[in-house]
Amino acid sequence: MSFATIAENIAKVRERCEQAAERAGRSAEEITLLAVSKTVSPENILAAYQSGARHFGESYMQEAKAKVGVPPLDKPDIEWHFIGHLQSNKAREAVGRFTVIQSVDSLALAQEISKRAANIGTAQRILLEVKLEANPAKFGFGVEELPSMVERIGSLEGVCIQGLMGMAPYDPSVTVVRSAFQTLYRLFERLPPPMRQTLSMGMTGDFEIAIEEGATLVRIGSAIFGSRSQSQRFLREA
C-alpha cells in the first residue's frame, strides 16, 4: 500500500472520529487513534507514523519482536500496545517492550506481569480485558467478576491498571453493539479515579458507535492498512 493511500486513510479515520465525537458532545482531542499494525510491514507502519500516527497495536509476540524498537521503527515517540491474547509464558517478552498491555484477561497473567515487571524495577501499564458476550471462545473477565479482579490486580506490585478494553459482539444490530459498549463504559466509570485513564473499545466496523458511547481509544486496522489479507506477507515472513 502506498504512502499516499495510508495518509489518506488516516485522514479519513480522523475525520470520522471528529464527527462521532461532535455527535456525542465530546472533543476529538479526547480520542486516541491506535493503528492496529499486526501483519503490517515495517514500511507501511513507518508510512502511518509519517502521516501522524503515534500509537500502534500488535497481537503476535514473534512478529512484534521484529518491529518494536527495531529500525526503522525505533522512534522515541511511538507508543506500542499489545492487544492480542497473551499467554502467561510470554509475559516476560511483553513487559517493558510495550507501553501498554491492553489484553490482561486473567489473574494468572496479571501475576506473571507483576513478577516480571518487579524483577526489572518497572511498573507495567495494563488494561483489563472484559468479555462482553457469552462466548467461551472469547477471552476476558466476566462483568460480574471484574470488581474483585480490579481490587486483586490493583494491589499487585509492578502493574498499573490504566482502564479497560473490550470488543463488542460481531452482530449486525447497532443496538446490540451499542449496548455492549454502554456496559463497558459503566464498568469503566466505576473504577477508582486513578484507573480511569483509557477506555479501549471500537474497531474499524464500530468505532464511531464506541466514541459516541465514551471510548477514549479506538483500535483501527483495515480502515488504515487495508484488509488483513493484503498484509499477510509480512506475517508469513516474520
Number of domains: 1
Write down the secondary-structure element order. HEHEHEHEHEHEHEHEHH
Termini, distance in Å?
18 Å
Task: Return the structural class.
Answer: alpha/beta
The coarse silhouette is globular
Proportion in β-strands: 15-25%
How is this structure best described in words?
- The protein has 238 residues and is α/β, with parallel strands linked by helices.
- It has one domain (3-224): TIM Barrel (Alpha-Beta Barrel), CATH 3.20.20.
- Helix content is 39%, strand content 17%.
- The protein has ten helices and eight strands.
- It has helices at 3-23, 42-50, 61-64, 91-94, 107-119, 146-154, 174-189, 207-212, 222-225, 232-237, and strands at residues 32-36, 55-58, 79-82, 100-104, 124-130, 159-166, 198-201, 217-220.
- The chain is globular.
